[in-house]
Amino acid sequence: MAIQCPDCGRQYDVTLFQFGQTVECDCGAIIEYGDDLPHSRPDPAAESLDPVELPIDGVLDLHAFHPAEVKELIPEYLDACREKGILRIRIVHGKGTGEMMKTVHALLGRLPGIASFELAGPHEGGSGATIVYLKE
After folding, report:
1. Which domains does the chain have, with CATH numbers?
2. pLDDT tens digits, residue range 3-42?
3. Model confidence, pTM
C-alpha cells in the first residue's frame, strides 16, 4: 500500500510509517500517517532558513523549492531576468507526476509580459522543463 504526500503527490510505502514515524517528503512536507488520512505539517526548520540568493542566468530549477513557493518565485525570477535583458528562460520543473508542470503552466498563462511558453526540446529537459519567452 502507498501513501501519497498531500502537498506534492509523491508516493511512499506505508511501511515507512510504522510505529508513528514521520517521513520528510522531497517537497519539504513532513508526512504523518494516523487513523484518519496521511497529512502533512510544515517543516519548522524550513521557516528558520535564511533566504537563498538565486543566480539570474535564465535557468530556474524548481527542484529545491517547496511547491507553495513557486507562485511567488516564478514571477519574481522572470522580472529579475527581464531587468537583466534575459528574455528566454528555462524553468526546470521535473517530470514526476506532472503536477508541478501544470502549476507552472497555469501560472505562466496568467502572468503579464509572457510572449509564449512551451515544453523544452529533448536536449534541454523535454517534458521536465518549460521554455518561457518574455515580451520586450
Report:
1. 2-46 (no CATH), 59-134 (3.30.1370.110)
2. 667 777 777 665 544 545 666 777 777 776 654 444 444 4
3. 0.64
